[in-house]
Specification:
Blueprint (H helix, E strand, L loop, with lengths): L7 E4 L16 H9 L1 E2 L4 E5 L6 H11 L25 E4 L8 E5 L3 H10 L13 H12 L5 E5 L7 H16 L3 E6 L2 H4 L5 E6 L2 E4 L11
Parallel strand pairs: 3-7, 3-8, 5-6, 6-7
Antiparallel strand pairs: 1-2, 1-4, 8-9
Length: 221
């Protein structure tokens, strides 16, 4: 039985389409998703590409489409600084029958606000994230929330992590996938791009295209 939390995101034919010359449709990867939709395979999908290619914007669109807080957290999180995200673009989410609905979004650039929100709205004991290093806080939060099958969106987690911590994250992601979780990561890290069994998508002026690890610019000698 196909129990992927998200099988596909597809455009809503009845929804108005934003102008092609207005952001975020000026981002080729976003324009492609809104035109053709996006199939998400089981397991892990890793988006790689240069700065400005649209990796993070694609993740923000997908997070909004499944109802997650734009600046990180779960669907129930309510925190915001300056709204700059593209929104869901009226994408329709197709889910597997009986698929888990739990989902969590972590964005490196908005972790400070998420930490504050969690500490101020804790329903019980909550780690003091602001008293930890950047990497320690990220791994603690992810380890606390990533405890079950569901959908996990991670935007440039490598920015917070040392090489050893990145290996720890790879191990945890591998365990999550083995337990039926679906993971989507945007990264500059060749280590995370080598996540066992991951489906690689290279993001650039062409939009989104499948890639092999050995052929990526970030792994070139």
């Amino acid at each position: 039985m196909d129990r992927r939390p998200v099988r596909r995101l597809r455009p809503d034919p009845g929804a108005p389409r934003p102008p092609d010359d207005v952001w975020p449709l000026t981002v080729p990867a976003v324009a492609q998703v809104l035109r053709d939709g996006l199939e998400l395979p089981a397991g892990a999908t890793v988006l790689v590409g240069e700065n400005g290619s649209g990796k993070s914007t694609v993740l923000e669109v997908l997070a909004a489409a499944v109802g997650l807080n734009a600046e990180g957290g779960s669907a129930g999180a309510r925190h915001s600084t300056r709204r700059s995200e593209p929104g869901s673009l009226d994408l329709v989410v197709e889910r597997g029958p009986g698929a888990p609905r739990w989902a969590y979004f972590l964005r490196d650039e908005t972790l400070h606000g998420l930490y504050s929100y969690l500490e101020e709205n804790a329903g019980g004991p909550e780690p003091r994230f602001h008293e930890m290093s950047h990497g320690e806080g990220f791994l603690t939060l992810f380890g606390d929330r990533a405890t079950r099958a569901g959908l996990y969106l991670l935007d440039e987690p490598d920015a917070a992590l040392s090489f050893t911590a990145t290996l720890s994250l790879v191990l945890r992601l591998t365990e999550l996938v083995a337990d039926g979780a679906q993971v989507l990561i945007a990264t500059h890290s060749p280590v995370l791009a080598a996540l066992p069994g991951a489906h690689l998508l290279e993001v650039g002026t062409w939009g989104l295209r499948p890639a092999r690890w050995a052929d990526l610019e970030l792994t070139a000698n």
